[in-house]
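Query structure, 694 tokens:
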């Protein structure tokens, strides 16, 4: 009865508004019958005037304590490794209290609501001023040579869900959005990255749509040390009309501006702004760690907007004048009104009945749809962007056109890969595990689903994100993002030639992704060129996981083995990328086809100190030969036996990103119990791969 009451109340409310609208139309229609001089003035004589107004937005966070301000959890959105520290009353990146390794972490704290920062008509940026206090603490203070890790930024970004890369990227940008991602950042950097043009490990940079700073200020020149552990206060003022920025630094208890800014110059932000943007902070760690605390934050913006409204000669004024002048005419012809009123009454009744019928059938359809969803046992609620979810089998079947052969991307021993298109238009890749694999000895569906769930929570720019999964009675499917540039092997061994700069970037990207997995106690267990994919910007991402959970004590032996094999596989992968040759090639010698193991060939060249022959000559003269030889040596280092010098992935990342000397390689390759071959891929499923640790 209550639902019925609300239903008819809503219908009568709509009926009332429609009746009022029709009455107004009736008045206008009656006025239209009379030719009065007032109405001879057409719309062309109505002048629209425009007045500018200022739109102001202000918010203030004296601290970030949930006990002092419970609403802060709604006002500030936390992404990645960001967290509210109740102990310090701070927005903290990364979370100091977490028990896991805080290296290679990235996070953001974003004000949850968009701010108007650009007038789209005049392309005038808003003026804003913000002040915040921050403290950068080394989490391993006993290490005197930590060098910072990595820094903090005040950011202006177009969305509230993207998280940039860790390390020198400061969680500001990632490769996928670097070319078209409008962003402004003021970085407080405590790590020197020469590849990004950093002058030292103590500077402030202004970044406009790029990780490379447009303006850099060496704050050592003004007597400030960002990594001294003290609480600092920053003031950032931007005059949108003058297009001028002013930045000042001081101590925390200093409420007034310092007398001299560290930066005060003209700067046009309009090319890097949308009308509405999000403001907040981002920070990251690399191989060295640092706790970034934002202790307080005030922000005020003022944007110019234009309101258009009619002149004093409004439509209502015309109606009023017309009514006054036409009153005698209406009184002289009273017989003309009843037919018009009667017709309007009939139209209103008919329209009301039509609306009631529409409401009735619409409500009935909603109830039927709701009962169908409940019958299926699953209610799909809105989810945060990019968060993995469980798909129904029908959704995936529709996306892949019933797993059509036309959508087949490839197959392997575990199953088949299909291209699909979801209902929202997103392209995906679907891995359909084969019945033979699921029923084979040692495969546990519960463990497989648990592994899928664990890896779906891992987020890194160089790991393919999992969009979701499906568990039907007899099927297990995984849904990944689709990469239109395909897998690396098609680019590396196909007709085209990847230049050296792209190959080096691919190697570094995969090293970062693999290192992230190892730091989270996971192993990839299936690294090869066909498991590496390239996005539209040729950023390399690692997919096609063969993950092993490493949390249970019973898996510790397997975990150590598989991470070691990952490093070994990465070494072979590096040799493939630099040489442009497959790990096992079939060659015809004297009319007989013979297989040549590329790893054995590489070590034979090492014995003769002739590694240059392994470098792909198709790259031409643009290759940095010295750099290529160094990367080859890192690859060979990864193929050593573990007790003979094989590095960890963390050490490999450091070697690839610094000028640290590569440890000396032996003249001959140590002999393993099971020599490497392409058939050994996936040996981590058994403990026989322990031989690679000898």
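Result returned for the query:
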């Amino acid at each position: 009865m209550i639902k019925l009451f609300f239903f008819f109340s809503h219908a009568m409310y709509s009926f009332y508004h429609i009746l009022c609208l029709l009455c107004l139309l009736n008045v206008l229609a009656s006025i239209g019958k009379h030719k009065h001089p007032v109405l001879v003035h057409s719309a062309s004589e109505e002048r629209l005037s425009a007045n500018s107004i200022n739109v102001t937005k202000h918010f203030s966070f004296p601290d970030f304590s949930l006990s002092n301000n419970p609403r802060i959890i709604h006002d500030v959105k936390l992404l990645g490794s960001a967290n509210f520290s109740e102990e310090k009353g701070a927005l903290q990146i990364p979370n100091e209290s977490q028990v896991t390794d805080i290296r290679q972490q990235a996070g953001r704290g974003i004000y949850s609501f968009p701010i108007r920062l650009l007038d789209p008509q005049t392309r005038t940026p808003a003026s804003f001023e913000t002040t915040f206090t921050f403290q950068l603490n080394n989490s391993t203070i006993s290490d005197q040579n930590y060098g910072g890790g990595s820094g903090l930024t005040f950011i202006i970004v177009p969305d509230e869900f993207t998280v940039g890369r860790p390390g020198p990227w400061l969680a500001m940008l990632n490769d996928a959005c670097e070319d078209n991602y409008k962003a402004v950042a003021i970085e407080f950097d405590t790590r020197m990255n020469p590849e990004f043009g950093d002058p030292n490990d103590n500077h402030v940079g202004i970044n406009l749509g790029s990780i490379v700073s447009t303006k850099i200020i060496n704050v050592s020149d003004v007597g400030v040390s960002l990594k001294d552990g003290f609480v600092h206060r920053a003031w950032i003022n931007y005059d949108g009309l003058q297009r001028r920025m002013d930045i000042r630094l001081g101590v925390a208890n200093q409420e007034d501006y310092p007398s001299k800014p560290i930066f005060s110059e003209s700067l046009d932000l309009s090319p890097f702004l949308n009308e509405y943007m999000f403001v907040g902070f981002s920070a990251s760690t690399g191989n060295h760690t640092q706790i970034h605390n934002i202790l307080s934050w005030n922000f005020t913006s003022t944007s110019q907007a234009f309101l258009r409204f009619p002149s004093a000669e409004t439509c209502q004024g015309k109606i009023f004048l017309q009514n006054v002048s036409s009153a005698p005419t209406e009184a002289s012809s009273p017989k003309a009104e009843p037919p018009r009123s009667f017709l309007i009454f009939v139209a209103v009744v008919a329209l009301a009945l039509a609306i009631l019928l529409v409401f009735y059938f619409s409500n009935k359809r909603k109830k039927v749809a709701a009962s169908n969803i409940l019958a299926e046992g699953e209610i799909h609620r809105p989810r945060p962007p990019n968060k993995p979810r469980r798909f129904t089998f029908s959704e995936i079947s529709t996306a892949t056109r019933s797993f059509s052969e036309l959508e087949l991307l490839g197959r392997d021993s575990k199953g088949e890969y299909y291209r699909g298109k979801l209902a929202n238009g997103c392209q995906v890749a679907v891995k359909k595990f084969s019945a033979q694999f699921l029923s084979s000895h040692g495969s546990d569906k519960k463990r497989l689903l648990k592994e899928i769930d664990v890896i779906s929570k891992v987020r890194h720019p160089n790991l393919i994100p999992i969009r979701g999964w499906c568990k039907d009675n007899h099927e297990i499917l995984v849904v990944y993002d689709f990469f239109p540039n395909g897998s690396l092997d098609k680019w590396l061994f196909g007709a085209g030639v990847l230049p050296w700069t792209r190959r080096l970037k691919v190697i570094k990207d995969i090293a970062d992704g693999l290192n992230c997995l190892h730091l989270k106690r996971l192993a990839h267990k299936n690294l090869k060129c066909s498991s590496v994919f390239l996005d539209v910007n040729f950023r390399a991402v690692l997919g096609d996981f063969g993950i092993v959970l490493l949390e249970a004590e019973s898996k510790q032996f397997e975990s150590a083995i598989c991470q070691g094999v990952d490093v070994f596989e990465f070494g072979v992968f590096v040799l493939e990328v630099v040489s442009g040759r497959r790990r096992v090639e079939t060659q015809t010698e004297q009319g007989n086809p013979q297989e040549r193991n590329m790893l054995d060939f590489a070590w034979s060249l090492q014995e003769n100190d002739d590694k240059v022959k392994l470098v792909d000559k198709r790259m031409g003269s643009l290759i940095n030969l010295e750099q290529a030889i160094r990367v080859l040596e890192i690859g060979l280092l990864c193929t050593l036996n573990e007790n003979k010098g094989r590095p960890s992935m963390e050490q490999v990342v450091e070697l690839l990103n610094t000028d640290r000397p590569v440890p000396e390689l032996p003249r001959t390759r140590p002999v393993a119990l099971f020599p490497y071959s392409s058939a050994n891929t996936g040996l981590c499923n058994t403990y026989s791969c322990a031989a690679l640790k000898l």
